[in-house]
Automatic annotation (TrEMBL):
InterPro entries: DUF1996. Residues 1-21 form the signal peptide. It holds the Pfam family DUF1996. This is DUF1996 domain-containing protein. Keywords: Signal. It comes from Lasiosphaeris hirsuta. Residues 45-303 form the DUF1996 domain.
Length: 364
């Protein structure tokens, strides 16, 4: 979404409108929204493949510099062990990551990593370099109960499933929006995963880029900071949209802030209509998915003690989006300077054409 209060208010209104049609209750969502620039792009994954240097597929990672191959939930302390964070909110040393997207040349079969670009590129606001992610922490509510309980140290979760190659049942939790040239800078408007978005990769060229949304669950079992599949300790609230559900099921009774990512991929170089003939499209996720249904995101909590709860409790008063006196902000220049060397060193095809995707995942 574009970074304007007007759009944000429209989103809240839209959610309220959708929901009130179903429930008769006014409901909406207050949120923090801020940019985090790229920390590193590499094949590591401390949630799914702890200890493995060269995890099976490539990730683009933002957040605290303590990001590492192993991040044991019992012992990690990101605010203490990070030297810096690539996020605008300087008390946030969490890590956020997603898969990368590649363009596979229909002419010769080689791969090039699709560049990421900043969302709402306005100096002094979301200043991001070579992409990064836009992060949301939302507080869904209905009526007057707005209480959310923030994550415990060590907490982690995954949204989406890299093994999916067909549309999952239920509300969309990951989606792609094909942007027109005019939406290139501000990222398009309208609610995430609405009718303009698709679970699969767009079937037509996107000269303004592709905006990918990843929506995390808003309910927690109240006990576990992780689970074997990194999903079952959290749940989406029942309903026909993943966003802004606030009525948590009995199995997962604790309402947590709803985390959402927006990632902007710059597909302008790859928008030749000739690549989109006969039902084909040229993009593939770094884990070999040519459908797009396997899009997913990983979250690892790492805020300084008390900061996120303070912000969530202040939302709706003078705290909103990237303006929140309850939190400390750092300059765009400072967050961009927070980067990490690859620990899993390899050419990821940012400026070169690769014969194979990093890790050579099966392409299907
Ligand atoms: C990453 O983990 C290794 C091994 O445990 C450790 O030596 C190193 O200091 C860690 N790096 C960071 C940035 O925490
Ligand atoms: C492969 O095709 C792309 C365009 O689709 C081109 O830019 C690139 O140079 C080609 N690489 C080789 C080795 O021919
Ligand atoms: C943003 O800042 C950079 C570096 O100071 C400058 O070159 C660029 O023109 C600015 N862009 C806008 C839109 O103000």
């Amino acid at each position: 979404m574009a970074w304007t209060r007007r759009v944000a208010v429209a989103l809240v209104a839209l959610l309220a409108q959708d929901a009130s049609a179903q429930t008769g209750n006014a409901r909406g969502s207050d949120f923090l929204r801020f940019g985090c620039s790229q920390l590193v792009v590499e094949r590591t994954d401390p949630i799914v493949n702890p200890g493995l240097r060269f995890s099976p597929h490539l990730h683009q990672i933002v957040g605290g510099s303590s990001f590492n191959v192993t991040m044991d939930p019992q012992t990690i302390d990101p605010p203490k062990t990070s030297k810096c964070t690539s996020c605008k909110m300087s008390e946030d040393f969490s890590n956020y990551w997603t898969a990368s997207i590649y363009f596979q040349s229909p002419e010769n079969g080689t791969f090039r990593r699709v560049p990421q670009m900043a969302n709402g590129r306005q100096n002094g606001t979301l200043l991001e370099q070579e992409g990064g992610l836009t992060i949301y922490y939302m507080r869904p509510f209905s009526g007057t109960n707005k209480k959310t309980t923030v994550f415990k140290p060590g907490f982690r979760m995954i949204a989406g499933d890299p093994n999916l190659r067909a549309k999952a049942s239920g509300p969309l939790v990951n989606c792609h929006r094909c942007l027109a040239k005019a939406d290139r800078i501000m990222g398009g408007s309208g609610a995430p995963c609405d009718r303009s978005d698709t679970a699969e990769f767009p079937s037509k060229p996107c000269p303004g880029g592709i905006r990918v949304t990843v929506i995390f669950p808003s309910c927690w079992d109240g006990k576990n900071v992780d689970s074997p599949d990194h999903r079952s300790h959290v749940a989406y609230a029942p309903g026909n949209q993943a966003l802004a559900g606030d009525k948590c099921p009995a199995s997962h009774p604790v309402r947590i802030p709803q985390v959402m990512y927006e990632i902007m991929y710059d597909t302008s170089e790859f928008a030749n209509p000739a690549y989109y003939k006969n039902g084909k499209q040229p993009l593939v996720y770094s884990f070999g998915d040519t459908t797009g249904y396997g899009a997913h995101g990983d979250y690892l909590f790492g805020w300084e003690d008390g900061a996120l709860q303070r912000a969530m409790d202040a939302l709706g008063t003078n705290c909103w989006s990237e303006t929140c006196p309850a939190l400390k902000l750092q300059s765009g220049e400072k967050l961009i300077s927070c980067t990490k060397e690859q620990q899993a060193k390899e050419d990821v095809g940012t400026n070169t054409w690769l014969k194979e995707l990093p890790g050579s995942p099966m392409i299907k």
